[in-house]
Every structure is written in C-alpha cells, then in structure tokens.
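Thread: Newbie trying to understand structure tokens

Hi all, I'm a second-year student working on a class project, and my supervisor (Dr. K.) asked me to get a predicted structure for one chain before our next meeting. I've only ever worked with sequences, so writing a 3D structure as a token string is new to me. If someone could post the tokens and maybe explain what I'm looking at, I'd be very grateful. Here's the chain:
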Amino acid sequence: MKAYLFPGQGSQFNGMGKDLYKKSTLAKKLFRLSDEILGFRITSIMFNETKILSEKTKYTQLSIYIYSVIKARISNDFDPDMVAGHSLGEFSALASVNVISFEKGLILVNQRAKLMQNICESTKGEMAVIFGLEDEVIEFQCKIDNGIVVPSNYNCPGQLVISGEQKSVRRVCSSLKKIGAKRIFILPVHGAFHSPIMEPAKKEFEKIIEKISFKDSKCPIYQNVNAQPIIKSEDIKNNLRKHLTSPVKWKQSIKNMIIHGASSFIDIGPGNILSSLVKKILRNK
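---
Reply by user tm_fold:
Sure, no problem. This is what the structure looks like when written as tokens:
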C-alpha cells in the first residue's frame, strides 16, 4: 500500500515551483490562480531567490502548500492508499485528496499563516530540536519547568521538538544538555508553533474553519493531533480545530500507517525530509 507524505515548514527552497510551472499547463493555471486569490504574486516570491521565502512564515507556508498540492495534481501516478502531512503539510494532504478544494485550502493556509505570523511578531517564542533522548525524559523536563514549554513535534525516535517561551525553551535545553542530549538545535522559525502560545491564533482559526466546506476523504488521512486514520469530514474538522496548539504526532502516525499496511512512503512536496524520518522510524520499530 502506498502512503504519500506532505512536508511542513523547513522544506522550502529558493526557486521552488519554477520546474512545475514550465512543464505543466495545469500547474500554470493553479500558480496563476494562487496569485489571483491572494491578491499578490506569491509566484514571484517562490520562483525568485529571495530571503523572504524563509524569513516570513506567511510566505513560507503558502509556498509549500501551493508547491505540494500542484505536484500531487499534475502527477500521473498519484493514487494514495493513505496520506499524512507534517503540520502545515496536513492541509496539502487534505487538498490533494479533495477533502477541500485547492482554493479553499489556499484560503485556510493563508489565514493560518497570517495568524501564526502575528503571534510570532508579538511574542518571544522559540522551538528547539532535541536529539538522543527518550521522549519521556524530555516530556518530564518540560513539565517541571515553571514557564510555557511543551513537546511539539514527535518526529522520530531520538528526535523531538520542544516549543514555548524563549526563556523556558532555553532553560529546558540547558537541563537536557546536562542530562545527555546528543545535540540541540534551535529552529529558525521565530515562533512557538504547536504550543499553548498559539491559543489566540487557534480561536481565530476555528472561526475560519467553520466557514469552509469539507468532504469525506477518499482514503484515510492520519492527522497530527491523534495519529489515527480519519475519513469523515466532521472528524477531520474537529481535529483541525486543535491543530495549532497540539503536538505533531508524526512518529506515531508513521507507525500506525505501517501497522495498517503501508509498504512504501512517497514524499510529494519539496525535499525528502519526511522520507528520512520514516527510515529512522523503520530502523527503530
């Protein structure tokens, strides 16, 4: 069974989408439609080598969504038995299997990105990747800290991301280094995604979700909040309501996909970050 994976922030690259635009009439149409819906030329930001693609959350998220969904739409052999998306990638997955239209997905991602960008600019949030420790050890250190810091991305065995107030993240990182973390890397995202700091954005995003019509999925989508195969539109919507403040259970999702018959995993967005995580998960089954 084929499982298609859609990446989130961090998979972007300069010039992304140029190749798709040149080789497909449908891709051209969808790129131009994106510019029209957004009211500015996101294609110029994507196609040209510019720092703004990585520095501004609102542009990064839009670019990855557009690229990923177009790549799925123009692929001759995109016929998934199951799908999953890492954080932002969940929206790419939903649009690619027609739970939401490309246009509605673009609106959702645009609003999500703006809300998250606003939080990034008004708070001192941070995210850090911890390598080489058991999840339980990291979870405990987050729990005993007196600030806001939580596990936010369960990527693979030995790799967990924490998210929260900058001072709390730094404090927990210091403790984990003393305990024996092999490596700690502060992510260049300028925000505390998938943490309680995103609560104001979550409340606003819930209102936006309510205005969007969803269909049942044609195949199971393993959503971040519970790592379970979901098909019904209302269940998908309910999980998306918790999306911004809940951790990304990626490791758990991949394990469940394997249990349910996944035999091949295919990255459908930019890069191959997710495939590399799958290999690490498979080695530690």
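A couple of things are worth pointing out once you decode it. The first helix runs from residue 18 to 23. The CA atoms of residues 202 and 244 lie 6 Å apart. Feel free to ask follow-ups in this thread.
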